[in-house]
Amino acid sequence: MTALREVAVVGAGAAGLHAVEALRRAGYDGRLTLIGAETEPPYDRPPLSKHLLGGQWQPDRLALRAPQALRELDLDLRLGVRAERLDRQGRAVRLADGHRVRCEAVILATGVRPRRLPGAEAPLAGAHVLRTLADALALRDELRPGVRLLVVGGGLLGAEAAATAVGLGAEVTWLVSTAAPLAAVLGTETAALLAGLHREHGVRIRQGVARAVTERHGRATGVRLADGSHVAADAVLMAIGSEPATEWLADSGVPLDDGVACDAYCAAGPGVWAAGDAASWPDPRTGRRRRLEQRTNATEQALHAARNLLAGPDSARQPYDPVPYLWTDQYGLRVQAYGSPGDADRFEVVDGSLTERRFAAACARDGLLRGAVGIACARALRDLRAQLAAHGPWPPGAQ
Amino acid sequence: MLVHIDQEKCCGAGHCVLAAPEVFDQRDEDGIVVLLDAEPPAELHQGVQDAAAVCPAAAIRLERV
């Protein structure tokens, strides 16, 4: 073990929490500072668009650790304060409240910030994003029966929010820019199944490109589309993706390329590590730089960065080669996916069937398994995951 | 060691089953965690601790006894 005495983790979401936990578990007993811009102790974000937005859960259920478990980590916990600057030479993080946190090593886990549409770049009543607990509570306040909600963006967040809102009695329009929303993530077959479910439940799916949020008397009234038409709404949810929250690192010397540009070991220069939504790294499967906005990746990458940080010499470090996992809950169904099903051109059901909405499918391309996706077939999916982890050919046994 | 699971929080990633297959399983219909052994023997503790640490939903809680 290296003789580190001062480590800071910037970002107190899932990645930040798992990083500090992993450092302590590995025996690091020096000073450990966890810095978070939000005031809440580390909490879980995936339920925001589901149980929290739907009202089944109250905010206290989101806590990732009980207060006692947090205390046992013996952290210098700085919540509600933003990191403003990383001074690599001086080995310190400067905070918005003027404090300097000295650190011989730092893990950057500042996550992402949701994109906003023109017309609603500054806060506007009735125009929402969904990233933080405060965002979710503000949107929840609007979702009464009969309210017209316009969800902009054909990703998983938009899909989940649309499903939750329609369940609360809202009149939901889901504005998507492609004919097959979610196909890039889940593959066309599963995406089509989900789109069908949305329609069955009364969500109106509309294809178009949002240009700007419109407003009247300081409140959003809908969205203007690229074709000039206007979609009126009582509330708008902008679920159009996000940007890594890395502007504060602009003049730090830390390499930035789609977030903090890590090497294969989660490192971004001497003493600098990164994990979670804000970190990109060269994916050994494709050789391409990749950044994952996935809950499970936040955990795994943080554990990995922490382990490599403590590993000492470069030779003891392990490259990061995860099998990505994501899930989404919509209309009582849970879709689970490993790897990158959206990158495949071959879809082969290995258990169940799409029509019974219970299936596991292998997603392959160029003779290689690229992903697995399914509903209610956890065991078959786990078998496919093992093949993904082994970089297995498809069909199995083929060369 | 006492193991507690929260099935409502579980996201079905299956990481616990990979870390400690003697202690955790998944329901096939939704991947939700099933506890096979709430009081696992000492030789399984390391795997169970790994499972709790990697659980992305913080759905596993360990109690010292």
Topology (SSEs and partners):
The complex is a heterodimer of chains A (399) and B (65).
Chain A: E1 6-10, H1 14-25, E2 31-36, H2 51-54, H3 67-72, E3 76-79, E4 83-87, E5 92-95, E6 100-102, E7 105-108, E8 112-114, E9 127-128, H4 133-142, E10 148-152, H5 156-167, E11 171-176, H6 183-186, H7 188-200, E12 204-207, E13 210-216, E14 219-225, E15 230-232, E16 235-238, E17 242-244, E18 260-261, E19 272-274, E20 279-282, E21 289-291, H8 295-311, E22 325-330, E23 333-339, E24 346-353, E25 358-365, E26 368-375, H9 378-389
Parallel strand pairs in A: 1-2, 1-7, 2-3, 7-19, 9-16, 10-11, 10-16, 11-12, 18-20
Antiparallel strand pairs in A: 4-5, 5-6, 8-17, 13-14, 14-15, 20-21, 22-23, 23-26, 24-25, 25-26
Helix pairs in contact in A: 1-8
Chain B: E1 2-5, H1 15-19, E2 24-26, E3 33-35, H2 45-54, E4 60-63
Antiparallel strand pairs in B: 1-4, 2-3
